[in-house]
Amino acid sequence: MREDFDPRQVQCFRFVGAEYAGGEARLHYALDDLQLTEVVRFPGAPEVLPQRAQAVASALSMLHWLAGTSYYKAAIPRQIEFAGPLPDPQAAELITQVYVHGLAEFAYVNQVTLADRVVIPRVAAASEASPLSLPRRALVAIGGGKDSLVSIDLLSGRDEPFAVTWVGQSELIRNCAERCGRPMLNIERKIAPELIELNRRGAYNGHVPVTAINSAILTLAALLYGYDEVVFSNEASAGAPTLIHDSQPVNHQWSKGPEFEVAFDAWVRSRVASDLHYYSLLRPLSELAVTARFARLESYFDAFSSCNRNFRLSGDKPRSRWCGECPKCHFVFLALAPFLVKPALVRIFGRNLLDNADLIGDFEALLEWGADKPFECVGEARESRAALARLSERADWREDAVVAHFRRHILPRLDPAELDLAGLLAVGDRDHLPERLRTVFD
Q1: Does residue 187 contact residue 217 with C-beta atoms inside 8 Å?
Q2: Is the Cβ–Cβ distance between 222 and 229 less than 8 Å?
Q3: CATH 1.10.357 holds for 12-280
Q4: What is the overall mean pLDDT for the chain?
């Protein structure tokens, strides 16, 4: 029997170092004397151009620091050390935010505190980055769900030059990427096997800010392959906290939210390349607004999935693309229902999730009706309430178990002002987008 691991005995987490060569980044960490190495592979990456060497070094350092959340959380020691160069104040502040806010759900679930533990040493301010004259084309992250496919459709309609890219070995994502008809880039990320063993032996475990990590991976990829934009598809709803604990917001989607986006883009422009832009194309839209646009993209209906059980590293995956049991399945079904004919939606999921009385409690959580919103990438409660209110008006939905329960027991107690579906479909602020794309939703 393996000896148990006691995370409380670990004194120090150390960033040991990082190097890049031959299309492979190796990220080294240590928990006391235990060494851990993560490997990120960039297939067919060319040799680093001399004029990009400093930018690559900066991007590699940030990848090293942000990917460290996966290893730091195993023990959350109070001492954090850097064997190599220390981050400058701007980088240190970004790292602190990612570790404190990006790991807030982890801290809440494990009943630990991080704000007083995460103290990042720093050096004096670094010099400003210069432009690199990167080629005018974008790396667009694709995740196999509806959001990235909406971004890809919008950019394709503008004849924008871009490639679709993803991290990991998901065949579901690959199938969606192949349907886009664009160049593809699949990056491999291999977690240190020692971490998986620590998790089995009693390490702290839980949610990490994977979007922040993938953002750092794609920034390095943009420099290696030559792209001047890194584009994600995070919507406005991602900025809403999942719950409030001790007067502090806890957001499952923090690294998908605007706070991270603004801070990371500012760091990229000032410390990596002044002409490299990181942004989310869908930030002006709510989840419902994204879903309304996706409802027009029938060519993806038999390929996409937002069910996270398809993408987890361990455990059984659903037999079909939709497990029908998780909050993501429930929310996406509900969000699509106002915009699709009922038979089409039931064909996508293989069942009618709104006509299952056993799921009433799960949908009430999406409404934040007597329960907190689930720790999942789902829309705001007001979006779920507005969608169910609209379905309550439709003869084809109003008698289904979940809709009927909402119509009889919840809808009469809601303020009609918070059920404004049209308002949720409006396009919000676009100032963060490149000027050429600010009319992309028109």
Answers
A1: yes
A2: yes
A3: no
A4: 94
- CA dist 132 and 215 (Å) reads 19
CA pair distance 399, 24, nearest whole angstrom: 56
Ranges of each domain in the chain:
12-280, 309-424
8 A C-beta contact, residue 61 and residue 85:
yes
Per residue in 98-120, pLDDT tens?
A: 999 999 999 999 999 999 999 99
Cα-Cα end-to-end distance for the chain: 62
pLDDT digits (tens, 9 = 90+) for 366-376: 999 998 899 99
CA separation (Å) from 191 to 13, 27, 70, 88, 99? 17, 10, 9, 27, 18
Tokens 């002002």 found at? 417
Burial track 387-418 (b if 16+ CB lie within 10 A, e otherwise): bbbbbbeeeebeebbbbbbbbeebbeebeeee
| Continuous segment of H or E residues that includes residue 167 | strand 162-167
Length of the chain: 442
| Three-state secondary structure call for residue 403 | helix
Q: Report d(CA 36, CA 69) in Å as an integer.
A: 13
Q: 142 and 132 in contact (C-beta within 8 Å)?
A: no
C-alpha radius of gyration, the chain, whole number:
22
Of 119, 51, 109, 44, nearest to 79 by C-alpha is 119
Contact by Cβ (8 Å): 87, 66: no
Q: Is 294 helix (H, G, I), strand (E, B) or coil?
A: helix
C-alpha distance from residue 43 to each of 195, 274, 423 (Å): 25, 26, 44
> How does DSSP classify residue 25?
E
CB contact at 8 A, 312 and 196: no
Instruction: Check whether 323 has a pLDDT greater than 70.
Output: yes
Task: Provide the pLDDT for residue 2.
Answer: 56
- Listed in sequence order, the residues at least 6 apart from 159 whose beta carbon sits closer than 8 Å to its beta carbon are none
- What residue ranges in 226-287 does DSSP mark as E strands? 229-232, 243-245, 248-250, 277-280
The SS3 call for residue 2 is coil
Q: Residue 37 to residues 31, 52, 73, 169: CA-CA distances in angstroms?
A: 11, 25, 15, 19
Amino acid at 431: D
- Band of residue 1 on the pLDDT scale cut at 50, 70, 90: very low
- Determine whether 432 is exposed, middle or buried from the number of CB atoms within 10 Å of its CB (0-12, 13-18, 19+): middle
pTM of the shown model: 0.95
The percent of residues in the chain predicted with pLDDT above 70, rounded, is 97
